[in-house]
Give the backbone structure.
Amino acid sequence: MHLNYQKQFTTLKIDKHPTIGLNQSIGFIGSCFAQNMGMKLDDLGYPQFQSPFGVIFNPVSIANILKSLKKEEEPWGSVDEEFFSFNHHHKLRHASFEALKAKVKSEKALFLNQLKSAKHLFISIGSAWCYKLIEREIIVANCHKLPQKEFDKILLSDSEVLQALKEMTNELLQINADLQIYFTISPVKHLRDGVVENSQSKARITSALQAFLKDNKQFLYFPALEIVQEELRDYRYYSNDLAHPSDWTKEYIFNRWVETYFMEENDRALKELIAKKKRLAHRPTKG
């Protein structure tokens, strides 16, 4: 679908903040929306990096990951003869506990060095719903297929979301005082929580985040959720599961994001990369 499709709706006005200079590396952490944005840049050959600890939806777990970067201890666990950290996505598991610890230590060092030298980091928050491990009374990033009875499902309060935002930004600025931090709320619907519950969650994150940004104007906000909910406003812009944005929608949001934050020279360079990719994709095959 061509991007001229946008002419069928009223474009949401977004104030431009051309902060990203030519070929400046951009970091991403949080929900699958952040991962998709980073992968789109990577696919174009543009410098980017992502948290090695996988997709993380709730703000407390994002803060926990950042606070743990300079530490070796983790809330370790095991299931089905594999070890993991409750702070990380289930993809980071290993049959050897020592091998897992070495892997996590290595990934922390790499991510920490990337953050120290980065200019920009985007944080995408997906949900205010999270799971608390009853036995240890800790909020987990992933349940790692443990029995549901071992967890309480909770909706974070405004104050808990605010505290997580303060912790993650304080930690990041201690790592890199010059880091420009951007926030966005994932437009993906968490329908497994329930339709009403998804609305509660997005409203909770929106309320707390806007209150935080009002008092911390050095951080920026990109309205990905608002683009989908208030600008597109139609299920044709979703994929077949009616929860995730369609490929066209992700492309549209990506373009809005670029035009909002990329400096003119950088914007031109990225458009050249996009044009080059399209030419290569349409190159006729021999034979």
Observations:
- The mean pLDDT is 91.
- Residues 3-281 form a domain with the Rossmann fold fold (CATH 3.40.50.1110).
- The chain has one domain: 3-281.
